[in-house]
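User: Fold this; tokens only.

Assistant: Input:
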Amino acid sequence: MLIKQDSIQLSEIFTSIEGEGVFVGTKTLFVRMAGCHLKCRWCDTGYALSMLSGSRYSVAYVKQLIAERIEPFTYKVNFTGGEPLIQYEAVIELAKFVRGRGLRTYLESSCYDSTKFAKLIPYIDICKVEFKMSDSNVVDANHYADLLQNEIMCLRISVNLRKISYIKVVVTKSTSFDEFDDLVNNIFRKIYPSDIIGFVIQPSSGFDEPSIDELVRCYDTVCPYYPEVRIIPQSHKQIGAR
């Protein structure tokens, strides 16, 4: 489905409490874009995967929606999905608008396309780079190396532009520890620990959940490279937030 540059396929827009990552607990306006081709097997926003989900609006109208929904003391505006990079040109316009209102812009992305990412990231203040393990089943084995290369490149672009950057990896009971070790080693061959503000290990929730021992093993893998590693589950589900 082709989305024109002056329109947006929007799944939803709402204010809630950030439930993931290093900014957990902050009041956030979520702008959820429709469409994601990766379809992680643990995805909890399946309703936003189709490019036909949500509604199509003009960029101008979505700016109006954002302006109407910004509440006092909102910490950031989170562009999420779906996958925001699919509609990166529209997100650029929204991010510029949000910055003009004096608010922080935050990008949640699988970082599957470093070319699109490089065009969007100048307008983003905070970037969460999510690395997909192969047990996510987002791509087949023949394309996984390409996905990983794009994720690494996006991380380096974000760091080089001095964005507030952090890493998230979802871990399940099926996650390969050898693969996780290789990923962590690969990441810290490309960046310095001081380049990022966090490394989050997120256990899958309600689907193939890892044990505490498995999470601790992943923690112990990251800690020699990045001592401030954290295991942070999805807290919004615990408090009944969206």
